[in-house]
Amino acid sequence: MSESGDIFHPPVVVRPPTRGARPYRRVEIYGRTVGRATAPQDVAEFIRRAGVDDPDLDDPDLVAWRGGDRTVWSQPDQPGADQPGPDQPEQPEAAS
Predict the structure, then answer these.
(1) CB contact at 8 A, 27 and 34
(2) How far apart are CA 94 and CA 4, in angstroms?
(3) At a CB cut-off of 8 Å and minimum separation 6, what does 24 contact?
(4) 29 vs 92: CA distance, rounded Å
(5) From the CA atom positions of the chain, what is the Rg in Å?
(6) How far apart are CA 28 and CA 31, in angstroms?
(7) What's phi and psi for 29, nearest 5 deg?
(8) Helix (H, G, I), strand (E, B), or coil: what is residue 41?
């Protein structure tokens, strides 16, 4: 490591998938959120709009995938995830 403490960060960071019925991954370019991606094609489009004509999503010098690689688009289910916790109130059921 150099004296200056420079650490390389790829310009594109794809954050971990969200939980829920419609998970997405937040995409940042140079530290600025540019959108929500639901598939690798969305990430590629954000990068194209930033000026890279043919982005290689597997290039670690371009894209840092957090919380899973380009094939991961949802969080694994956790046992009891649909049950309220001890400090969470139960949600009322919708009337029919």
Answers:
(1) yes
(2) 58
(3) 17, 18, 36, 37, 38
(4) 40
(5) 18
(6) 6
(7) -125, 120
(8) helix
d(CA 43, CA 14): 8
Global pTM? 0.73
Q: 9 and 64 in contact (C-beta within 8 Å)?
A: yes
Instruction: Tell whether the model's pLDDT for residue 38 goes beyond 80.
Output: yes
Over range 19-31, report the average pLDDT.
96
**Lookup: tokens for 14:** 């794809």
Which helix (H) or strand (E) segment holds residue 43: the answer is helix 40-49
Most confident of 4-8, 19-23, 62-66, 77-81: 62-66
For residue 80, pLDDT over 60 is answered with: no
Q: Spell out a b/e string for 55-76, using b for 16 or more CB atoms within 10 Å of the CB, else e.
A: bebeeeeebebeeeebeeebee
| The predicted structure's pLDDT at residue 52 | 97
Average pLDDT over residues 26-54: 98
